[in-house]
Amino acid sequence: MSLPIVAIIGRPNVGKSSMLNLLAGQRISIVDPRAGITRDRVSTLIEHREHFFELMDTGGIGIIDDDRLESHVEEQIHFAIERADLILFLTDVRDGITPLDQTVAERLRTTGKPIILVVNKVDVQTLVPEAAGFARLGLQPMIEFSAKHARGRMELLDAIVDRLGKAASQAPAEPVMKLAIVGKRNAGKSTFVNSLAGEPRVIVSETPGTTRDAVDVRFTRDGAEFVAIDTAGVRKKRKMDEIDFYSYTRALRSIQRADVVMLLIDATVPIGEVDLKLGRAVLDEFKPVVITLNKWDLVHDRATTSDFAEYLGGALPHLRYAPIVCVTAASGKNVQAAVDVAQALHRQSRTRVTTGKLNAAVEEVLGERNPSPKAGAKAIKVYYATQISVAPPTIVCFCNRPELVREDYRRFMESRLRELLPFAEVPIRLLFRERSGRTAAAPRGGRES
Description:
Layout: E1 5-9, H1 16-24, E2 42-48, E3 51-57, H2 70-83, E4 86-92, H3 99-109, E5 115-120, H4 128-132, E6 142-144, H5 153-164, E7 177-182, H6 189-197, E8 215-221, E9 224-230, H7 242-257, E10 260-266, H8 273-284, E11 289-294, H9 305-315, E12 324-326, H10 335-349, H11 355-368, E13 382-389, E14 394-399, H12 407-420, E15 429-434
Parallel strand pairs: 1-3, 1-4, 4-5, 5-6, 7-9, 7-10, 10-11, 11-12, 14-15
Antiparallel strand pairs: 2-3, 8-9, 13-14
Helix pairs in contact: 11-12
């Protein structure tokens, strides 16, 4: 059973994104005083009184877009209205009822769908009489609201679940995997996500920077729920404006909350600064990553997969362990295969090994190369190792002088343990800690599972 959808509809700059963030209790949509920042359908799961629904932010009806994407934005609004089980028609008390508000009201009325009229920016009590004037739109119920001061939040949530009734009473299935799609501008991330969703869920355009928010898209595969997170294309830091910066921070947050990251690389252009930056961000978060070469149809007659594997190994040496998949998102070729690889990485990252098998591997590595810093120095002795967590697999080696273990040795040991243990294609978090007496506590920062 799919979640009921509640769509926020209104003209530009009435506070739709602020409303979504307030009702969600977190910053999801980018909020900016400039009109037209939201373009895609940005949605989030809301729970209230043990009822669940998908709240969807949309672009402003009647927006004039600087990049001439009005028709794309309108298409996304149309999809939101068509799929909505309930519509929140948002207006601005300070502007009064505008001709565009009246046009939107007529459009929504013809849908025959339940509507809650929300009058926003009622920030002070003196504006309440002004809000009452919106009754002339002939829509009920009407709720006075202030996204800035959280006024009317509980009243609106109550009204939503009352209107949805039993349709919102069933908790959604937990996603099997959250997959973040990251990459530089025009790498084809939105096309890839639309291929997964089986519909134009996010805007696809040749215009760079079309996607601004991080957009969660649920899709079903083999009866299981997945979440694909489309992110804004990242550009070089020196070229970022304020909106680019907001988009970049949301892309980083998407990496943090993902189970697996798909680093989408445009196969038609060389690896650049942005690819390296995103690769480092994925590594810093210890996330499994699928290096996904998109637009393969445009280059496969000039290069082989082994050629690209060698090239990527040199360009992204810190991600040599990551699998590479060649796709053509525009046609959907190999898109599902890429998801299969991501699922395999997800399973690897959640694997536990026995203490016996782990210590046998550690002994083999120590036999190949000793961690002691130099001849004549006090020897570093590793007593034993234990796996304390998964996702990422986290291994603690207890020894006598952990502060002497060099970073190059840590990298060597991580690489060899990946080869010897069932973690061949995922990052390992390797920690060295001093043994305390006969027992050793789990290290600070180690995540228990």
